[in-house]
Amino acid sequence: MAKLYYRYGAMGSSKTANAIMVQYNYMERGQKALILKPRLDTRDGLRVVASRSGLKTDCLYVEELDTINPADYDCLIVDEAQFLTRAQVERLVAIVDEMDVPVICYGLRADFQGNLFEGSRWLLAWADTIEEIKTVCWCGRKATCNARISNGHVVKAGEQIMLGGNESYVALCRKHWAQGKLGNEGRER
Amino acid sequence: MAKLYYRYGAMGSSKTANAIMVQYNYMERGQKALILKPRLDTRDGLRVVASRSGLKTDCLYVEELDTINPADYDCLIVDEAQFLTRAQVERLVAIVDEMDVPVICYGLRADFQGNLFEGSRWLLAWADTIEEIKTVCWCGRKATCNARISNGHVVKAGEQIMLGGNESYVALCRKHWAQGKLGNEGRER
Amino acid sequence: MAKLYYRYGAMGSSKTANAIMVQYNYMERGQKALILKPRLDTRDGLRVVASRSGLKTDCLYVEELDTINPADYDCLIVDEAQFLTRAQVERLVAIVDEMDVPVICYGLRADFQGNLFEGSRWLLAWADTIEEIKTVCWCGRKATCNARISNGHVVKAGEQIMLGGNESYVALCRKHWAQGKLGNEGRER
Amino acid sequence: MAKLYYRYGAMGSSKTANAIMVQYNYMERGQKALILKPRLDTRDGLRVVASRSGLKTDCLYVEELDTINPADYDCLIVDEAQFLTRAQVERLVAIVDEMDVPVICYGLRADFQGNLFEGSRWLLAWADTIEEIKTVCWCGRKATCNARISNGHVVKAGEQIMLGGNESYVALCRKHWAQGKLGNEGRER
User: Are A88 and A94 in contact (CB under 8 A)?
Assistant: First the structure.
């Protein structure tokens, strides 16, 4: 009866902080929740997840799932789940359905061009429960899209995943994402 | 400020009935809501949507969107939205964002093999709000997957869309879908 | 592991039609779902629930729960659940928690003066899952409030429940409900 | 078009941490979000909200709303909203509907005896959007109820709000809350 959750949110919607807090809540109740992330994502250092707001905790790589017994945990939590492969999502599905261990995945929905990531695609297809972590665009509307920023401008072409580049990302509502408007034209800040 | 809604549900979750009721509710308030469906789906006859529970109403084909002015309506409702093409979803996005007309799409999430449809893929990527229309598996759990049945058995191979065949579909929980269990083994019915 | 659901919606949000469709979906899967309603509500005739859109089915009174064994059913569905008493909600909670039978309640949230009904109060306090059935105000915003109309005007005083009166109700957004604006000033209809 | 949100969750569901993260996300976008709490709650010190997980930030008392102009903010965030009075909730409704400033309230649903708090009662009646912040019982089910613990035992009688006492609270599923089972019988920890 365990469930696979996909909690998606745009850049800067506190997905990692939520993941860490869920683990914390399990711990407070004397339960064990393990945080995992795809190895791809190494911006926060080795085997660590860290939120922009300052929360930080140890994690394991999804690629290391074979080294543990999921049944030893009350919950598995996956951060940066958009980077999962199809096979990894299938593995998580099996953990939920066959071992009855709940799995909560946090990730982006679509990339800077509006395409689903491999992980989000299969999680959206198979999750038992899809939940949104909301955040806002500079205009006050809900932000659902992720813009890639390079030298202060929205760029619309490039690789889906850029490692070690100088790009940054910002969450925009779909309208401002389509228009490429960052909302700071003429502002001083 | 209008929104694009994707209300997904497995086979037999009353998606069409919901679409018709939403139109009815708009009409009761003196507003105009247009129901559309992709032309592909002709099981219910020409330009008609019909629910299994007996509700029925006229509709237009999504391919005929050019013959109307979306701004004449308070809401567009799309049934069988899993069959939309990417270009059609983009068109609906533009109606929401540029004409400020809300669009509510009803459809399946994944096909009988667990793959997203073209329409559901882009709606899951771009919708402002993703909502589930729930239904149950024979075991009582939530049904999230669609099994194709041929001669009383679950089949796992074949075309994504079969028109005019003898197949039928049934909604199962992910576990029974993976096992191919219809739950009527040994039952007489 | 069964759950108590409260699905609330304003007047005219198709709550009864949804209740009937959920029963239909259970039946299609060879399962039994019983519809109940508080005896108070007799507008649709004896032991019948009927939607404005034309769906209709037999039901039992909540007061008659003692005459059946809830465990004989795969699901209990309660319409007009805002009229439940606290004791009746407690009875439903016990059916969920002790007999493991899911109970899905449909009802209004607040009355025409913005006060919770007895049934909605305790369902909002105790339900496992609270879900909204959305409908629209004449202005296009979501309607969350219920206005009582008498002689074409919004009235703000009176009994919470009026049986056999000439009042009618209309769903409005909170702003227009507070202003008492029906949106048909100057319109001919 | 601003909305009043009620995000309810049981004890230990990270409501305060969520409130602080939402403020942080607004700030990151160059927007201003003000956190408020009812004066009653002084456990975290004067004009500070602090999460168990270590996040902390300044706040204002709801009673001090007159000293600011809500229109100066992009969002108001209220923590411990279950302690709001009806009049304070009405004030927040007016800020949303008349000043078009979104208000996000975080709070408990029901007290240790299963009764709604004054604040949660009116927020559940009037909020535009009701969302749950989930947490788990020691048994793994969703925790929806709050038990008061005194000397290691669940107590069922007493004042709704105890200030300065030795009580603590723990979130339980409804079944274990009704049974008063804390799940640590016989465990060593």
Answer: no
Q: What is the full DSSP assignment across chain D? A: ---EEEEE--TTS-HHHHHHHHHHHHHHTT--EEEEE-TT--TT-TTEEE-TTS-EEE-EEGGGGGGS-GGG-SEEEESSGGG--HHHHHHHHHHHHHH---EEEEE-SB-TTSPBPHHHHHHHHH-SEEEE---B-TTSSBP-EEEEEETTEEE--S-S--SS-S-EEEEE-HHHHHHT--S-TT---
Cα–Cα distance measured from residue D31 to residue A135, given in angstroms and rounded to the nearest whole number = 12
Sign of CA dihedral B35, B36, B42, B46: positive
CA distance C159 to C142: 26
Chain B residues in contact with C20 by the CB 8 A cut-off are 53
Determine the distance in angstroms separating the CA of B18 from the nearest CA of chain C, rounded to an integer.
8
The one-letter amino acid at B129: T
Structure confidence by residue, pLDDT tens digits, C146-178: 999 988 899 999 988 876 667 789 999 999 999
The low-confidence residues of chain A, meaning pLDDT below 70, are 41-45, 163-165, 185-189
Q: Taking CB atoms and an 8 Å limit, are B175 and A124 in contact across chains?
A: no
Kindly state the tokens that stand for A15.
């997905």
Please report all neighbours of B, defined by 3+ CB atom pairs within 8 A.
Answer: A, C
CB A162 within 8 A of CB A169: no
Residue B17 touches partner C, C-beta closer than 8 Å? yes
Q: Compute CA A29 distance to the chain's CA centroid, rounded to the nearest angstrom.
A: 25
Alpha carbons C72 and C10: distance in angstroms, whole number: 32
The answer to whether C25 contacts chain B (CB < 8 Å) is yes
Taking CA atoms, what residue in D is nearest to A17? Answer: D21
Is D9 a residue whose pLDDT tops 60?
Answer: yes
Which of D20, D25, D136 has the CB atom closest to A13's CB atom? D25
Q: Would you say the C-alpha torsion A9, A13, A17, A21 has a positive or negative sign?
A: negative
B99 contacts chain C (CB < 8 A): no
Q: Which chain C residues touch D132 with a CB distance below 8 Å?
A: 129-130
Q: How far apart are CA A137 and CA B147, in angstroms?
A: 40
The pLDDT score that the predictor gives to residue B161 is 84
At D52 the pLDDT is 86
Per-residue pLDDT tens over the stretch B13-43: 999 999 999 999 999 888 999 999 999 866 6
Contact criterion met (CB < 8 Å) for C175 and D110: no
ipTM: 0.93
pTM of the model: 0.93
Residue D82 CB partners (closer than 8 Å, separation 6+): D107, D108, D109, D111, D117, D118, D119, D120
Three-class SS state of A22: helix
Residue from A3, A16, A21 whose CB has the most chain D CBs within 10 Å, to mutate: A21
Q: How crowded is residue B6: how many other Cβ atoms within 10 Å of its Cβ?
A: 27
**Best of B91, B128, B139 to mutate (most A CBs within 10 Å, chain A):** B128
pLDDT tens digits for range B129-140: 999 999 999 998
Catalytic residue of the set A64, A80, A118, A185:
A80
Residue at C49: amino acid letter: V
pLDDT at B187 over 60: no
Distance separating alpha carbons of residues A81 and B89, to the nearest angstrom: 25
Mean pLDDT of the C94-103 span: 97
The residue among D7 and B1 whose pLDDT is bigger is D7
Radius of gyration of chain D (CA): 17
> Which chain B residue lies closest to A131 (C-alpha atoms)?
B130
Q: How far lies B135's CA from each of C27, C70, C96, in Å? A: 12, 20, 18
Comparing alpha-carbon positions, the chain B residue that sits nearest to C20 is B53
Report the chain A residue with the minimal C-alpha distance to residue B175.
A97
Question: Are the C-beta atoms of B11 and B170 separated by less than 8 Å?
Answer: yes
